[in-house]
Amino acid sequence: MSTIRVAIAGATGYAGEELIRLLLQHPHVQLTCLAASAKWERPTSVAEVYPRFARQLDLPVEALDLGRLARAADAVFLALPHGTAMALVPSLLEAGKRVIDLSGDFRLRDPSLYPRWYRFTHAHPEWLGQDGLAYGLTEFHQEAIKKARLVANPGCYATSILLGVLPLFQAQLIEEGRFLVDAKSGLSGAGRKADTSLLFTEMTENLRAYKVNEHQHMPEVLQELERASETRPLMGFVPQVIPVSRGLISMIYAKTRATPDAIAAAYRSAYPEDRAPFVRVRPHGALPELRDVVGTNFCDVGFQLDPALGYVIVASALDNLTKGAAGQAIQNFNVMHGFPEAAGLR
């Protein structure tokens, strides 16, 4: 198979670092450009920025330059802060590049949602309805991703929630379309930035809820559930940060009249191993833990039904930097280019 020249913009963030780690072992990738969102005074050896990559990669980390990105690569991963990618994407697409965007800039189809959820007005709303744009939940949008020029990589919380609950909506097993999510994420989910609230002394032996029912991943979850089930779902969402570096688990609570066998059948239908190699479904009553998924591209899903209460409890666990960001982005890259979906990920 062919080799694709690949650039990473945002290489100094946590997701950018994870992209480097994974793409170094990809059999069909040649890394050609590592760009930082900040203006660096000089190109700096990647081994100086990340000593772990010494003798593995001989590339500098350099200031972000759109022309350089376009010249150096056939495919570009954008691991930039929200609101940054939308200024770069149109030019990259016009230059014939294929783009995987890890930010929220192209996840929502309705541009009117951006001011509320992302606190900016979208600069290029015309691209949100393009046929060449795909929402990159790989397990559910393979055909669109194959043809896409631009993939909007889902958020980490959105990936965990959707992989846990979307099969149940498709099978019409959720009563009234209502569900609650109690989700907990490691500190790396906040990104590599100076923030007093994320200091070791603030977070060790602590747990903190934030953006309750206001998190920017909520509208993409509701958008995808509505697309898949033709219902108007309602979700309550409590995201929390916990004192671990990485890993995310969503506990989902939904009213149902379904039996354990019907729920298990919905998951089997959604995630056959030959079409969903990175979703592992547990037997009824066996719930995943963070340690099962950290450092991998797997999302592990388990459920337990309480027939007396009439609720199903779903646990959906993944690594927020891998399956929740860089790993899923590489899955989408593989699908876009006709490579085996697991290339570089096992």
Quickly give the CATH architecture of the largest domain: 3-Layer(aba) Sandwich
- Report on the biggest sheet: 8 strands, mixed
Identify the CATH class of the largest domain.
Answer: Alpha Beta
Side by side, the strands of the main sheet go 3-4-2-1-5-6-8-7
Give the percentage of residues in beta strands: 15-25%
Domain module count? 2
- Number of strand elements: 15
What order do the helices and strands follow? EHEEHEHEHEHEHEHEHEHEEHEEEH
Which regions contain 5 or more consecutive residues with pLDDT less than 50? none
- So how many helices? 11
Structural class: alpha/beta
First-to-last CA distance: 18 Å
Write down the Rg: 20 Å
Global outline: globular
Q: Superfamily at the CATH H level of the largest domain?
A: NAD(P)-binding Rossmann-like Domain
Mean pLDDT: 94
Might you state the CATH topology name of the largest domain?
Answer: Rossmann fold
Assign a percent range to the helix content.
Answer: 25-40%
What can you see in these coordinates?
The protein has two domains: 4-154 and 324-337, Rossmann fold; 156-320, Dihydrodipicolinate Reductase, domain 2 (2-Layer Sandwich), CATH 3.30.360.10. The chain is 27% helix and 23% strand. It contains eleven helices and 15 strands. Helix 1 crosses helix 11 and helix 7 (156-170) packs parallel to helix 9. The mean pLDDT is 94.
List the helices and strands and how they pair.
Blueprint: E1 4-9, H1 14-23, E2 29-36, E3 44-45, H2 46-49, E4 60-63, H3 66-72, E5 75-78, H4 89-94, E6 98-101, H5 114-117, E7 133-135, H6 142-147, E8 150-152, H7 156-170, E9 178-185, H8 200-203, E10 208-209, H9 218-229, E11 234-241, E12 248-255, H10 260-270, E13 279-281, E14 299-306, E15 311-318, H11 322-337
Parallel strand pairs: 1-2, 1-5, 2-4, 5-6, 6-8, 7-8, 9-11, 13-14
Antiparallel strand pairs: 3-4, 9-12, 10-11, 12-15, 14-15
Helix pairs in contact: 1-11, 7-9
